Amino acid sequence: MKKIFFLTALALMLFSCKTSSVTGKKLDKSAQVAVKGNWVLTSVTYPGSQYIKVNSFDIADSKCFEGSTWKFVSNNNKGNMALTNFDCPAFSSPITWFINTDGEFILKVLDAGEKAKRVRAGYILHIANQADDSFQLIDKGSDVAGKSIDVVYQFQRAN
């Protein structure tokens, strides 16, 4: 009898716990609609940028992202991005993204034909200074050369 009571109590404790995952939070629809459209990543800044290199999104050096083109579709949270800097490796990829009510911008870079639900890795950035024609994504606390820094990606609406 004690075992049944103990197992029941244990099961209740396990099932009553809620996740604090970023994917379990409500979406900020108005912020997502404001990001909808075509954008150019105009600059990547961080302290000490003249001395250190940051590998952005595990793809390329952060400076390769300057001038990259991004398309965000808010009704299905899909889009694409492409590196356009001639000094850098050619790269283009579909993406999936969303913004939650905590101001977190969740981004997954996909391989062609790959479903987002099969991709376990992604990036959590913070959206800031959102205006009609610009916004920033901030990678808070990136580990660069053993130091924690903020990497700021500045976006400008494309014409």
Q: What would you note in describing this structure?
A:
The chain has 2 helices and 10 strands. The chain is mainly β. The strands form 2 sheets. An 8-stranded antiparallel β-barrel has the order 1-4-5-6-7-8-9-10. Strands 2-3 form a two-stranded antiparallel ribbon. It is globular, with a radius of gyration of 19 Å. Keywords: Signal. This is Lipocalin-like domain-containing protein. InterPro entries: Lipocalin-like. Residues 36-109 form the Lipocalin-like domain.
Fold blueprint:
Elements: H1 2-16, H2 29-35, E1 37-45, E2 55-56, E3 60-61, E4 69-73, E5 78-83, E6 91-99, E7 104-109, E8 123-128, E9 134-144, E10 147-157
Antiparallel strand pairs: 1-4, 1-10, 2-3, 4-5, 5-6, 6-7, 7-8, 8-9, 9-10
Features:
globular; signal; mainly beta; Lipocalin; 14% helix; two-stranded antiparallel ribbon; 159 residues
Q: Give a count of the beta strands, DSSP E runs of length 2 or more.
A: 10
Q: Ranges with pLDDT <50 over ≥5 residues?
A: 5-22
Q: Can you tell me the overall shape?
A: globular
Full CATH superfamily name = Domain of unknown function DUF4822
**Annotated CATH architecture:** Beta Barrel
Percentage of residues in helical conformation? 10-25%
Count of alpha/pi helices: 2
The description of the largest β-sheet is: 8 strands, antiparallel, barrel
The CATH first-level class comes to: Mainly Beta
CATH topology: Lipocalin
Assembly type: single chain
How much is the radius of gyration in Å? Answer: 19 Å
SSE succession: HHEEEEEEEEEE
**How widely separated are the two ends?**
71 Å
